[in-house]
Amino acid sequence: MILGYDGCVRAREFDETSFFRAIAACGARALLIGRRALVVLGLPVLTADYDFWLHPEDIERFNGAVAPFELVPTHAPDDARRRGRYAVENDEHVDLLVARAVTTIDGLVVTLEDVWARRQTIQIADGCGLPIPTIDDLIATKRFAARPKDLEDIRMLEVLRGEDPP
After folding, report:
1. CA distance 8 to 148
2. What does the alpha-carbon distance between residue 56 and residue 1 come to, in Å, rounded to a whole number?
3. DSSP states of 2-28 as a string?
4. Which of 16, 20, 26, 151 is deepest in the core (most CB within 10 A)?
5. How many C-alpha atoms does 16 have within 13 Å on its Cβ side?
6. CA pair distance 71, 65, nearest whole angstrom
7. Which residue, among 137, 146, 157, 145, has the nearest Cα to 31 in the 3D structure?
8. Is the pTM here over 0.70, yes or no?
9. What's the Cα-to-Cα distance from 88 to each of 50, 127, 157, rounded to whole Å?
10. How far apart (Å, rounded) are the C-alpha atoms in residues 118 and 132?
């Protein structure tokens, strides 16, 4: 937050394309997941934050890339690795899943290495590619928690993939 010329508190300007460019340039194995990935695919969902699945060895690299945006980590890297997640935040909020593998609610083990190998890169601006999971892998990530909104997101992803919803 910043104080405006009129004395009112205002949110900082956030350049999303520069944010994505910085992450891509740092070389971290970071996949945009969650609803923001659905937005990138053109689906009509709302979200207020960013979610990434980040390789545990790349925490410091990621944190360094987002530091110029004044995004502050909620946990030290070793603590984040033990916890399996952390966030970087200021006016913006970025949740980071830090795990080599996650099990879905129906018992499927999804590994970051496999999802990273199959990733797709979406061009969001000139010279700015954003790695996201394939539609099948996004569906799998939505099965990590399978909250009601995740189930709706899965339905939309299945339609996007060309399937008739159940």
Report:
1. 37
2. 30
3. EE-TTS-EEPPP--HHHHHHHHHHHT-
4. 20
5. 12
6. 10
7. 137
8. yes
9. 10, 25, 27
10. 9
**What is the bridge-based pairing of β-strands 93-98 and 128-132?**
unpaired
Q: What are phi and psi of 88, to 5 degrees?
A: -120, 140
Q: Which residues are CB-neighbours of 154 under 8 A, at least 6 positions away?
A: 139, 142, 143
At 150, give phi and psi (nearest 5°).
Answer: -65, -40
| Closest to 49 in 3D by CA, of 102, 101, 85, 99 | 85
- If we measure between CA atoms, which residue out of 73, 70, 76 comes closest to residue 52? 73
pLDDT in tens, 104-115: 999 999 999 999
Structure tokens at 5: 């010329």
**Residue 7 pLDDT more than 80?**
no
Residue 54 near residue 98 (C-beta atoms within 8 A)? yes
SS3 85: strand
Type of residue at 71: L
| pLDDT tens sequence across 47-78 | 989 999 999 999 999 999 999 999 999 999 99
What gap in Å lies between CA 13 and CA 16, rounded to an integer? 9
